[in-house]
Amino acid sequence: MSRLILITGGARSGKSAFAQQLAESLPGPHTYVATSPVTDPEMAERVRKHRLARENHDWQTLEEPLDLAGTLARTEDCPTVLVDCLTLWINNLMYRATNNRQPLTEEDVEEHCRAVIGAAHQHPGTVIFVTGEVGLGIVPENREARLFRDLLGRCNQSLAAAARQVTLVACGLPLHLKQENTP
Amino acid sequence: MSRLILITGGARSGKSAFAQQLAESLPGPHTYVATSPVTDPEMAERVRKHRLARENHDWQTLEEPLDLAGTLARTEDCPTVLVDCLTLWINNLMYRATNNRQPLTEEDVEEHCRAVIGAAHQHPGTVIFVTGEVGLGIVPENREARLFRDLLGRCNQSLAAAARQVTLVACGLPLHLKQENTP
Amino acid sequence: MSRLILITGGARSGKSAFAQQLAESLPGPHTYVATSPVTDPEMAERVRKHRLARENHDWQTLEEPLDLAGTLARTEDCPTVLVDCLTLWINNLMYRATNNRQPLTEEDVEEHCRAVIGAAHQHPGTVIFVTGEVGLGIVPENREARLFRDLLGRCNQSLAAAARQVTLVACGLPLHLKQENTP
């Protein structure tokens, strides 16, 4: 059974860099699963920088906006997988559901999370998920934004319950919320 | 003198569920003080779910949007009281004050908090308050929202200073900010 | 080489009061460096309250919205300097850059931070910086706000990497993210 690790934090907290360093401290080759469909120049620039930061290492990059469980099943020969990030994954699931006129519910998110957790537990290596904390501001006026933060919060709770390590990153520094030792 | 406990966290952080489990680990019967006036379907659905989660236990529910001090005085025969949540309480106080054309100030909030803390300290059992962290986003453009986050922050500081235990919940996991042992 | 301390937290988390108490526990005389240009009545009231809170102590106040490195160089005879806060400093740098039609970038922020860190390290005493966490809410719709939270996050990471102590304040209570002992 794999090690499942969850790294969370706010925007520009250093969570992705922390997760990447953690991954690079573990056996390679490494797989980076990017959940971002690149849709605007701001995003493209971020992706470019993230890619540069990895380029001197033995990383392969997969882009997968939706099917994380299937992607994890296809990376079982890779000892360390980094999924960056669940925030965009939930966003993508929400967007697809809305397009299908079937708004995503918390129950849907729990089901998607169960599949991802299952695939992560099947994985023989370490799977590190990066996610975001978006629930510590004022209640958003926008109904979609309120739904998004509820769905992401639910996702984070599910993953954290299944994870062996959960770390909140602030100012680039880790704060461990959960740390179970290997039996 | 009672034990006063403060549980804080962001939206969908698992703070209410954590507070409820903590309450259920303490002697019953339990009283749940709901500060939410149910004003819209989204809220009604949340209340319904919260109520379901409690229904197999010896909980009685009181709804009290404003007079928390008086409500605590009336529950002194109940060893464990859970007040969920201060976020809505401050919101309700603010709304009433605005209707009375006397906008709520930080000094008003401190006075209300003193009364609630006094009632909690008179209570012979354990009083657990759930609150929210709303100050870790961008400064809201809306003036009312800015005032609300200042008032709630003030309230949280007052309660935390008086509490024996203060716990921040993130991803469903507790991070203890304060933990005093019983003398 | 000075002690560099970073105190962070959300709005009304008690971070400034915590930083001030920390400063007052260290040798005086103390210098308070205010980065706020007082531009509106709401701000003026905050500044007035902060000033009142300091008035019984041996504080001198300097107002400096932009040149923190130069200001630190001019306070080397003062054993304890409190800079409150970096949130407004980044805001001021951003505003000036926009006025000059040269939008501030993360690279610019890193350069400004290097200068400030250099000045703080030259300082013979303790330099305490207060900053804010603004990245834990929903992605702001406003592009300027998105840029601001990225720039501030970058600034906080730079300062935290250089600091000997980094403390997150929530509900008025400290959570230490980093604490290095003096060699």
TrEMBL record, chains A, B, C:
It catalyses: adenosylcob(III)inamide + GTP = adenosylcob(III)inamide phosphate + GDP + H(+); adenosylcob(III)inamide + ATP = adenosylcob(III)inamide phosphate + ADP + H(+); adenosylcob(III)inamide phosphate + GTP + H(+) = adenosylcob(III)inamide-GDP + diphosphate. The keyword Cell membrane does not apply. InterPro entries: CobU/CobP, P-loop_NTPase. One of its GO terms (biological process) is cobalamin biosynthetic process. CDD domains: CobU. Pfam families: CobU. It is an enzyme of class 2 (transferase). One of its GO terms (molecular function) is GTP binding. Gene3D superfamilies: P-loop containing nucleotide triphosphate hydrolases. The active site is at residue 50. Keywords: ATP-binding, Cobalamin biosynthesis, GTP-binding, Kinase, Nucleotide-binding, Nucleotidyltransferase, Transferase. GTP binds at residues 9-16, 34-36, 51-54, 63, 84. Its EC number is 2.7.1.156, 2.7.7.62. NCBIfam families: PRK05800.1. Belongs to the CobU/CobP family. Catalyzes ATP-dependent phosphorylation of adenosylcobinamide and addition of GMP to adenosylcobinamide phosphate. PANTHER family: BIFUNCTIONAL ADENOSYLCOBALAMIN BIOSYNTHESIS PROTEIN COBU (PTHR34848:SF1), PTHR34848. This is Adenosylcobinamide kinase.
